Amino acid sequence: MTDTTLQITELRYRWPGQAGFRLTVPDLSVARGESVLLLGESGSGKSTLLSLICGTILPDQGRVNIAGTNIATLSSGARDKFRAEQIGVIFQQFNLLPFGTVADNILLPLHFAPMRRKRVGDATAEASRLCSALGLPAGVTGVKATAISVGQQQRVAVARAMIGQPPLIIADEPTSALDANSQAVFLDLLFTQTATHNTSLLMVSHDPRLGERFDRVIRMEDIAQIERAAA
Ligand code: ADP
Ligand code: MG
Prior knowledge:
Layout (H helix, E strand, L loop, with lengths): L3 E11 L7 E10 L3 E5 L6 H9 L6 E6 L2 E2 L5 H11 E4 L11 H6 L6 H7 L2 H11 L16 H13 L5 E5 L7 H17 L3 E6 L10 E4 H4 L1 E3 L4
Parallel strand pairs: 3-8, 3-9, 6-7, 7-8
Antiparallel strand pairs: 1-2, 1-4, 2-10, 4-5
Helix pairs in contact: 6-7
The structure holds adenosine-5'-diphosphate and magnesium ion (MG).
């Protein structure tokens, strides 16, 4: 067990075929239970960095350690499983399965993460419990994910990320489509969930007003160097 959930060391990455964008991150860490807001302009490489942390792309140089494991040392299949076990992801557009029910969507990560599955016990009961903890109406679990409001879809995305208590939650601009009041409600729910399980949270935004809620605020320009080749 390590107290550092995420440690990035001397990372360098360039998009293949994309001579224009190269990202360097010398040192970034997130401690167990810590909440970190990462701010940066559009196009500054925030989503690229999150993809590197999730291991959906691999660095050209340097290391991304999650809970002490360098994810580049895992085979592609082992990395997919490791990601499913260790990281709950909340995307900007929530990425819910449109043809699935709310329960199908919440339970989805458990199919790829046996340790999370085991922690949960009765999966259907846990999906209902999370829904109620997140203020979703009773009985919502059987409803199609497309049939609920955007605010409710966002809560479902939180439940899907949190189920089975992965040690790290990654959220990519999850509040950008919301008004100020819905943003505050969303952050309340997210922080209540992460505090309960001492979960680390790395959230990306371009809105500095969100910063006061987090343990630490970092800026892309302070943690990363970006090079863009002339066209
Ligand atoms: P942000 O999330 O901060 O808006 P991104 O990481 O999405 O920034 O994008 C940074 C740069 O990375 C973009 O300008 C683009 O050149 C490049 N990029 C992002 N995604 C891809 C991709 N899938 N393929 C090739 N280049 C990409
Ligand atoms: Mg982005």
